[in-house]
């Protein structure tokens, strides 16, 4: 099964496919067999539940803890299962504050449905927004070919295997502007202009995940950094570039100044104007960064 699919964690399990009580609905057993994928939860040993069935497609649901366990002990079994079947991952029931888990674990193992709590906000939800900016933001992202391939001896991609660097991403942060139009003049500092800096994150394979940050530009609504960073990538197909601007505060927590998350595979090379978003993912009207991207 090739796509990733974006889905809210409020989705309920599939209703009985044999229930055709809706007025005017066609009751065709052949048609139902064609479109129905039965859902289920693991019964017995997790390794057994991940074994693909010979002649049918299944949809298996795992909690985030079950996925983490499977990724630790049976990672390649998960990848092999998702090549022909659908895997849905959902948040653990104790997340009563609508927090979320790391979606990259599921994506690295080919899970097509990463159920999220969409009613809150935070850095993990920003990653979800970033992943699904790809493909025109339609909500469908094709899985990388490496998660669908099999080797000569039917071996599949091993998320734990150490890989060679495939690409190098150069990111240059030139300058930023627009805060004085979207924020009050006392929002960041009551008596002086803000002290902005930019943080750059790569989120993806463990070997690729890292962060850098620019220096702090003091007392300036339109900071100019002109700083360049290079990120070696072993799995550029699954890497996300997360950008966050903060305002330095000596005595309290640094203030939030905007963020965005972008799929590395769809970065347009060259000098680009990058719009920033608020904590809920809504685009700020005027705040943007001037940045340069180069994938070598």
From TrEMBL:
Its cofactor is Ca(2+). Residues 1-29 are annotated as: Disordered. Residues 61-147 form the PI-PLC Y-box domain. It comes from Linum tenue. This is Phosphoinositide phospholipase C. Keywords: Cell membrane, Hydrolase, Lipid degradation, Lipid metabolism, Membrane, Transducer. It is an enzyme of class 3 (hydrolase). InterPro entries: C2_dom, C2_domain_sf, PI-PLC_fam, PLC-like_Pdiesterase_TIM-brl, PLipase_C_Pinositol-sp_Y. PROSITE patterns: C2, PIPLC_Y_DOMAIN. Its EC number is 3.1.4.11. SMART domains: C2 (SM00239), PLCYc (SM00149).
